[in-house]
Amino acid sequence: MKKKVIGKAIYFAVLLSMIPVSAHACVVCAFGLFDYYFPPVKYWMILFSVWFLGTMFLARKTDVSINPLPLRDLTGIIIATTLFVVAGAIAGPILITPLAIWPLLIVKRSMSKKFSAKIDVPTARNLKIFTAIMLVGVIALSIWCREIYKTRTNVDYIIKWEGTAISRSIINKLSREEPYPINDFRKIIEKGSAYVISLFIKSFIKHSDPEIDVPILINALERLHKKVDLYWLDDIQKALCTLTKMQIPNEGKAAQWREAWEKQKKTINISGS
Asked: In this model, does residue 24 exceed pLDDT 80?
């Protein structure tokens, strides 16, 4: 009995020790990085979580310790689930993904000669069926992952995970490409946040066509004006000033820019004719 208590204490201490360390990491960046290589991250995390907790629950009903973790009684399951949720919210896939290993270890133990004769038939059967279902889920998600990876564009990823480290890395890489992927950046301006636009707006201006890009920037200004503070919108305002050669106060609304731009185009057309 003392060994079981000590085992639980050690296990929970390890879990708790991971929380403050993981708190320094960006959980959104962790999810974004995982999703870059293994999309869709949300469903992988659900699968691993259900697999881990479901197997732990089934293994607790055995009369022998086939569970490689000290979680045989219901109290242990409740405590472990609580810690699992808290730590997972902080560390994301960094913690959740390795937990898929434990169910496989449990099933392997349940089929070993040492334990198989002592495990009741229903429990052994349930463990095998549950594991088979989870493995089917892994195969299905792997196929889906491959399809997403083949069809998803850099623009799709940047918009979904804007602000993450890997998203910024992709933007920096695109900014250095030759020829400059102007159409990709136009799509990001049409759908992305003011922050992500600010990451490439300076290089974008150098390759822009005012006839095409001024209206796109004005529409983005109109879309984002109610969603963010003016700090990030200031970069879009400056870009419009550079492209249009006009000066409008930083608090200028999209309607003001649109009106001024239309007047300027009419003036240019009149003088040209």
From this structure: no
